[in-house]
Amino acid sequence: MESTYFRKGFGLKGAIEGQLTADYHSGVVDALRAGDYTLRVGPLTFRLAREFGFCYGVDRAVDYAYETRAKFPERRIFLVGEIIHNPHVNRKLREMGIAFLERGPESEFDFSAITAEDVVIMPAFGVTMRDFQRLREIGCILVDTTCGSVLNVWKRVENYARDGYTAIIHGKWWHEETRATASQVEKHPGGRYLVVFDMAEAREVMDFIEAGEAAAADEARVAALEARFAKQVSPGFDFRRDLARVGIANQTTMLSGESLAIAAEFGRSMARRWGEAELAAHFRSFDTICSATQERQDAIHKLLEEPLDLMVIVGGYNSSNTTHLAALVRERGVRGYHIEDADCIDPEAGTVRHQPAGTKDETSEGAWLDATRVVGITAGASTPNNKIGETVARICRTLGLGEELNAAIAS
User: Fold this and answer.
1) Rounded to whole angstroms, how far apart are CA atoms 165 and 169?
2) Which terminus of the chain is less hemmed in, N or C, by CB atoms within 10 Å?
3) Residue 202 falls inside a structural domain
4) 393 lies in which domain range?
5) pLDDT by residue (tens digit) across 70-80?
6) Consecutive 10-residue runs of the chain (411 residues): their mean pLDDT?
7) Residue 47 to residue 36: CA distance in whole angstroms
8) CA-based nearest residue to 255, from 172, 175, 174, 315
9) Is 177 a catalytic residue?
10) Is residue 378 part of a domain?
11) CA-CA distance, 149 to 53, in Å (whole number)?
12) Residue 365 · residue 335 · CB < 8 Å
């Protein structure tokens, strides 16, 4: 019987290598690496973070999508949502004839057009248990690009549910990865989850835990929590029952320091509620921070120790790991510009479109490079090298340094 589930690639790396190079390679990035992550262009100096751009999981997902097109040239290929949160990469996949499945009004993906003859790619974030089961029932060919770091978190969440612990997930409840992670509790009867976005939300939950029986008896307080977290809990979640035993997990692209701090605070809170001697029976926590996310955040901290006039962060506005890099720049008090793509920089007008850290709105700014001599550059884990290189090129063109850039790359 022909296999309909693939997770380990098709052995077609050689067949797609040329196309990947053409689509994503950058001579500018090569020059930055060769210059110890520094490139001098006339009076301007660029400093690149030492960890940036595509991580292993994203690299694998993109490779696998290209291999899928090569493996099944005559079949219809669908992608559940976006392969990663980068507009350039997703546009390339559309140009290859891969159709993107969208969520319907009830937040469920529409699989009605898929037949058993079709191929469906699952993204690096993974898909929910329900969506996976729906696709298996159709009988189509499934290509699973779920990142290994995400799978590691899934294992923890599943184990929590198996052992009767509620999974407390630090993440964005609306994000594809967190939805998929939370759904892992469904593998065990009675599995429960609760998603907290930040320390403030976590503190609300911890305050309720520490208040003990008095809080459980307070109907108004329980009702307020139910309303507050209505979209962030598993069906049938009971705050009076389901917080006696908790295990901590996280969306892999959240700020690592915040995830670790939330885990530590929950541990202290559960100890205050149940006592240190009983803590192991009521609380579990494992470090599920993605190494690539950690490395890129650490590299930002290191780069910001150097004198910079400004930082440019390249990556999708809906990319969680990219927005957190922008947040780190803001926290350090450095002027930062989170741009979705190099096209956000208009050399002729001298303007930049960017999304200020902590906001959801793009804004435009002029004269943003005035008196600039040192520019820091980084990119989220879903940003290809060519977009980093194009960003450097557009900054140089804005300042009339196009020829100088060509000379710097050639030297």
Assistant:
1) 12
2) N
3) yes
4) 26-55+292-410
5) 999 999 999 99
6) 83 95 96 97 98 93 97 97 91 96 83 96 96 96 96 97 98 95 97 98 98 95 97 97 97 91 97 97 89 92 96 94 95 96 97 96 97 97 95 98 96 83
7) 9
8) 172
9) yes
10) yes
11) 17
12) no
Summarize pLDDT for 99-117 with one digit per residue, the tens.
999 887 777 899 999 999 9
Look up tokens 């139910």; give the residue.
Answer: 226
The Cα 353–Cα 361 span in angstroms is 10
Number of structural domains in the chain: 3
Cβ neighbours for 89, distance < 8 A, ≥ 6 positions apart: 62, 83, 382, 384
| Residue 67, token pair as written in the block | 């291999």
In sequence order, the β-bridge partners of residue 339 are 314
DSSP 82-125: -SSS-HHHHHHHHHTTEEEE-B-TTS-B--TT--TTSEEEE-TT
What is the distance of C-alpha 143 from the center of its chain? 20
User: In the sheet where 246-250 sits, what is the strand order?
Assistant: 193-196, 166-170, 246-250, 283-285
Catalytic residue among 51, 82, 158, 177: 177
- Half-sphere exposure (CA, 13 Å, Cβ side) for 269? 25
State whether 77 and 49 are in the same domain.
no
Contact by Cβ (8 Å): 143, 121: yes
The answer to whether residue 15 is domain-embedded is no
DSSP string, 152-191: HHHHHHHHHHHTTPEEEEES-TTSHHHHHHHGGGGGSTT-
- The two structure tokens encoding residue 305: 């120790």
**Under 8 Å between Cβ of 173 and 235:** no
> How would you classify the pairing of strands 283-285 and 246-250?
parallel
Which residue in this structure is represented by tokens 């898909």?
127
- pLDDT tens readout for residues 220-256: 999 999 999 999 999 999 999 999 999 999 999 898 8
311 and 356 in a common domain: yes
* Contacts with 361 (C-beta within 8 Å, 6 or more apart), sequence order: 355
CA dihedral 122, 128, 130, 131 (to 10 degrees): -20
Question: DSSP of 269-287, one letter per residue?
Answer: HHHHHH-GGGHHHHEEE--
Instruction: Identify whether 101 is part of a domain.
Output: yes
